[in-house]
Amino acid sequence: MGAEAAVSRIRALRRRLLAGAALLAVLPGAALAQTTVPVEVRVPPTPVTGDDGLSSDALYIDAETVSREGDVITAYSAEDRLYARFQGHTLRGRSLTYDLARGDGTASGDVELTDPARNTVFASQLELGSDLRAGVAVDFATRLANGASLMAATAVRRSENVNELNYALFTPCPICDADGNPKQPSLSIQAEKVVQDEELRAVLYRNAVFKLGGVPVFYTPFFAHPDPTVDRASGFLVPIFNYDDGRGLSVETPYLRVVSPSEDWLISPQFNTRVVPFVNLQWRRRFADGTVVARGGYTWARNFGNFDLDGDGNAESNVDFGDRTSRSYFLAHGRFDPSGPWRWGFTAERTSDKTLFDRYDVQDPYQDNGLYYGDQRRLISQLYAERQTERSYLSIAAFSIQSLRVTEFNDITPALNVFEPDGALPLVAPLIDARWEPAQAILGGRLRLKGSAVSLYRDDYFGSPVLRPGVIPTGSTAGLPGVDSRRVTGQFDWRRSLTSPAGIRYDVFIDGRLDAYSVADLPPLPGLTDETITRQRATLGLDVSYPLIRHLGGGADLILEPMGQISLSTDPDLDARIPIEDAQTLELDESSLFRVDRFPGYDLLEGGGRMTAGLRTTLRWSETRSASLFVGRSMRDSKQSGFLVQVPDDPARLYDPTGLARQTSDWVVQGDFRPSDRVRGWGHATVDASGDVRRAEAAVDSRWGRRNLATVSYIIDRSNPLNGPLNRNYEFVQLAGQQFVHGNWGVTVAGIADLERDLITRSEVGLLFDDDCFRIEVGYRRDNTRVRPTGPSDGVFFRLNLATFGGSGYGSNGLR
Fold first, then answer.
1. Structure confidence by residue, pLDDT tens digits, 139-162
2. In 357-460, where do the E strands start and end?
3. Regarding predicted confidence, which is higher, 714 or 81?
4. Which of 724, 643, 616, 630 is CA-nearest to residue 686?
5. Is 8 exposed, middle or buried (0-12, 13-18, 19+ CB in 10 A)?
6. Collapsed DSSP state (helix, strand, coil) of residue 465
7. What residues contact 784, with CB distance under 8 A and at least 6 apart?
8. Quick one: pLDDT at residue 228?
9. Does the predicted model carry a pTM greater than 0.90?
């Protein structure tokens, strides 16, 4: 019996091989294997065009039985599903009939068809057209490459571009849990009929029912959204709902118009119940070597806000005042980077009203675009060009600034806040910065040459801290012109590093600098004349550092790195006639403490003898767990009274906002810690000689569970020694976090507390639902910021982001 069975198996295998050989002989380029265990049949090589090794006209079938009558191939597998591969497609099923001449076929029995884009179609029965796409499908289901699923009782391909599905269900959400078991999708659309129009690049629904977690929540006789395979398509985005005391109920309905793969428009009108509508418009265009983004808004309306109409000291809420007029904003930026070392760009930022962004809640008006940035509540318009090579850098720019900052707050009537005048801010044209380093070492060290030039023009007079105490008039400054200045600077910096056998690192450096200033329109004080002012400084110094490491138990390391610097410089010659335009703000920290020029700009510089010391300690007990602390301080041979400025509320008194005017600088304390991969924090502080904290900033953020997170930050500034209406000291705590309490349901909180005024300036609390498909936030917020013309504002917010359909925001992705 065993011999007879063996002979039978050999004869069956011989018949299968002969059948396959006959098919190969009559079908050039087609390969078929038909055994329970695949058998490789070698044929003469054919041109390979696909990643799977098959040519465009090749067909591979792995099945239990395969037969052919004329041009029709029939395959069948009873136990394991057959496998077919052709033109980048793969197909599995129980049976397959394929017409070689017409290029179409029929498959049945747990059919699974995957195209080259990894989109997969499932069906109990499937008819394939000549383009190898489903013509008719029963019990149809498809899983797209982006994770969305589409199911229907039947599916019919009506034409080249139109697919029709009957009794269909669409969901962008997962339909299986992490273990592969079926689950109810979080969001789905069920419809009587769904038409996928590939020419329109849209999916159209008839009698559609929206379901959340399987519960019907909304019905519409007609609905449409972009085809999930489309990166971007024209249509309405998710609306933005809001409530504000000044505007009332607000609904923003963004509509995206896609002109081409490299250009689109976003029209986003805002409809309000208490004030007239406000229209936002954005245009984006990508060119071959750059991008331009322009956005703006417009309305024809009166001002509104909290206003004391009766003069009784009590502001009435939501009062319309002033003339009805055009109110608008314009924000644009562009950057072009053609081949070669040059690139250029621009920003154009202006608004008609100082409080327009606050009144209408314009999204993200203060962005960092371009070569130079306008800080919070300042807009910058600039034109710039850069040239960069491996050894050199050159930038040329010109810009002007519009300020939206409040200089005097009116706590009773916020609509009467006094803003910083634009004429007090300079027009900068041009600003030039250049650097060059030779490729070869100079005297064994690195040489760097720098150059800088700038011209600044002011319309209005502006005193401290731009003008030094010696040139500020004591009487009225009304009618005085703004001071204009021009500067040219040349500088060289040479540095050489040496390391001793003991591991001590020495850095010898030499620095030389020459400045030339031309100052005009100085205040009319005795001895002040417009003339050219020159100054120079030469510095010789040495940096020393000696890192020490000790290996502790358990794989931990302790690293101690003492560091010091000693430098000798000529007298800096701080002429009081030179305005301080670019060095008003100094961030004294670990990185700046050891610099030759610790001020960020050129107008202030240090000189004389100076010694700086610091110690950095780092404890590292794993790849992701560490803590470090730095403490340092600088000493000099004499005081620098030229760093002192007037106290804003008492001009007769001077104070040091930099921490560098005394012979000993402020202490710099800086650290960070990461006890786990889910918790991290950092802090920085400057402490004066008496132990008082002048400035400090700290932050901690943590994550727990899968999506729970929280961030807490603290910042304080106590550099101004006198309280008063012009005092700019501040102290804030900011908190943000989210906690899931049951499944995908959670709460979110955010807030900013002004500890200086004992007031919560902004706060939000909301309920959220978040899964892999969409995120919804609904909550309450209050805004107590003093800059708002409407005063304290309460409102309800609604934020929605949906997979596939788009979100309530509009990002920059998608342009090609």
1. 888 877 667 788 899 988 777 678
2. 378-388, 392-403, 406-408, 418-419, 427-436, 446-457
3. 714
4. 630
5. exposed
6. coil
7. 759, 760, 761, 762, 792
8. 64
9. no
Tokens of 477: 């400054």
Name the DSSP class of 8: H
| Contact in structure between 196 and 203 (CB atoms under 8 Å) | yes
CA angle 273, 279, 282 (to 5 degrees): 145
DSSP string, 248-266: EEEEE--EEEEEETTEEEE
Coil, helix or strand for 384?
Answer: strand
Q: Which two tokens stand for residue 232?
A: 């971007």
Q: What token pair was written down for 137?
A: 């499908």
Check: CB of residue 538 under 8 Å from CB of residue 532. no
Cis ω for the linkage preceding 572 (within 30 of 0): no
User: How far is CA 383 from its chain centroid?
Assistant: 23
Q: What does the pLDDT look like over 22-62, one tens digit per residue?
A: 232 223 333 333 333 343 333 444 444 556 667 767 778 88
Closest to 563 measured CA to CA, from 576, 547, 575: 547
279 neighbors 270 (Cβ within 8 angstroms)? yes
Q: Per residue in 521-564, pLDDT tens? A: 998 887 777 778 999 999 999 999 999 999 988 889 999 999 99
Distance CA 561, CA 544 (A): 10
CB 400 within 8 A of CB 381: yes
Cβ–Cβ contacts within 10 Å for residue 144, how many? Answer: 17
How many residues make up the chain in this entry? 816
Label each residue of 209-250 as H, E or C.
EEEECCEEEEEEEEEEEECCCCCCCCEECCCEEEEECCCEEE
Question: Widest CA span of the chain, in angstroms?
Answer: 127
